[in-house]
Amino acid sequence: MDAKAGEPAEEAVAGAADAASPTAKARRLVTKKRAALVVLVLLVAGLGAAYTNKERFSAQFADFSRQVIGDENTARLESWYFTLQDRVDKIKYRVFGGETNPFDQSQVLVQFVPQEPGRRVLIDLRVAPAPETHDLTIPDIFAPKPLTLPKTKPLRESLEAGEGVWSTAGLPRSSPEDMLMAKTFIRPDKSRPYALVGVLLADARRVRLHMVGGTVDPGGDRGVKGPGVVPKDDYANLLVAWNGGFKGPHGGFGMVADGKEYRPLRNGLASVAVYKDGTVRMGEWGKDLSWEDGMVGVRQNAVLLVDNCEVSKRVGEGNDTWGYVQVNSAEFITWRSAVGLTKDGHLLVAAGNSLSAESLAKALWAAGACTAMQLDINNPYVLMSTYFPQPDGSLRAERFMDSMPDGPGRFLKSQERDFMYLTLDESRFRRR
């Protein structure tokens, strides 16, 4: 009886001893490692799948990943993915070649642009013209000076056809005779000939820059939600729209627009400011710019890419400068976008693939920027859409570059994230 009753107790003691043995501990450790590895593999695979279907899944997956493993680990996964993707892109280009001109397309874009009545000029032929105006024709007297095209700087010995050459082809309301906007492309990275930066130039005298807060970013976490839409009243004069900057919590870069403070403006940050009269200025907040009467919108993001007509020395700094995580996103090779001003104050908007912060800065400098700041990065956030009025009053949306992710009609829908757009406004231009 006693021996039999003691058997289960002995088995329990033996089981406990086995569980406490080094072999059992190793088995549990291996199991935990395997589980962690499986989770990591699934996350990496999911991230890869998201970027393979960029327009549909990547934003949602990134947000989901941040909730599950945190911002820091998600940024590391993105860093690994970008490194792998960059190596794959280099191999693909060496083996198969690839695009080296983002505007090489045969499609012809047709637009309907209603013409305003011309200015009525009355001339009294009984009065002799003043000697100094004697050789001037009527167009010479009344027409404003045409857009001055910045002189581009070559970044390589051998340029592709059209590289660094300004063109109006495929742009709304623009032609060589009436150059409202122009475009070119730059290849800023010799090790990545397929890294193409498309640059749009707009005559600042004839356009108005608008900033729109998104319904979620950059101020949703502070309870400040934006309209997230282009007002219908602006559709008739809508020219181009593009993405804004980083998400609100990702660095705390300031924004004021729509009569709201989405995030407080901070000194030391690259800033683009819009004034009530349509003037656009750019610089470092607290040094070049500060709040003043007449300002209606300001967007900040990291530090200047181009400052005083030179590539900023800060483009290679770590992620204390370029974001809030410890992973250096300035070195991510990915899609990036930016906005800048020429020495004459005309507006530049740029975007391209396979770029670091430094190569984007070089492209803007080569295109004639004297100040410039980065906006958003990664798929599918980077997008620039152009708009063409149609005879029925509708708008036809087109990507600025065919390779850009997401559909061109994005900004005609409600947006969770902030964005910017241009409308035609010649009130200041015609008075000159």
List keywords for this structure.
globular, alpha+beta, 7-stranded antiparallel beta sheet, 17 strands, 2 domains
How would you portray this structure in words?
This protein is α+β, with helices and mostly antiparallel strands and 432 residues long. It has two domains: 19-96, no CATH class; 131-424, no CATH class. The protein has six helices and 17 strands. The protein has helices at 2-20, 22-52, 54-96, 138-142, 319-322, 357-366; strands at 181-186, 197-202, 207-212, 238-243, 255-257, 260-263, 270-275, 280-284, 295-300, 304-307, 310-311, 334-342, 347-355, 369-377, 384-389, 395-399, 419-424. A seven-stranded antiparallel beta sheet has the order 1-2-13-12-14-10-11, with helices on one face. A five-stranded antiparallel beta sheet has the order 3-17-4-15-16, with no helix packed on it. It is globular, with a radius of gyration of 28 Å. Residues 1-6 have low confidence and may be disordered.
SSE order, one letter for each helix or strand = HHHHEEEEEEEEEEEHEEHEEEE
Distance between the termini: 113 Å
Q: What is the number of independent domains?
A: 2
* Secondary structure tally: strands: 17
Low-confidence stretches: 1-6
Q: Count of DSSP helices?
A: 6
Class by alpha and beta content: alpha+beta
- Lateral arrangement of strands in the main beta sheet: 1-2-13-12-14-10-11
Shape: globular
Q: Helicity, in percent?
A: 25-40%
Main beta-sheet strand count, sense and barrel state: 7 strands, antiparallel
Average of the residue pLDDT scores: 84
What is the gyration radius calculated from CA atoms? 28 Å
Strand content: 15-25%
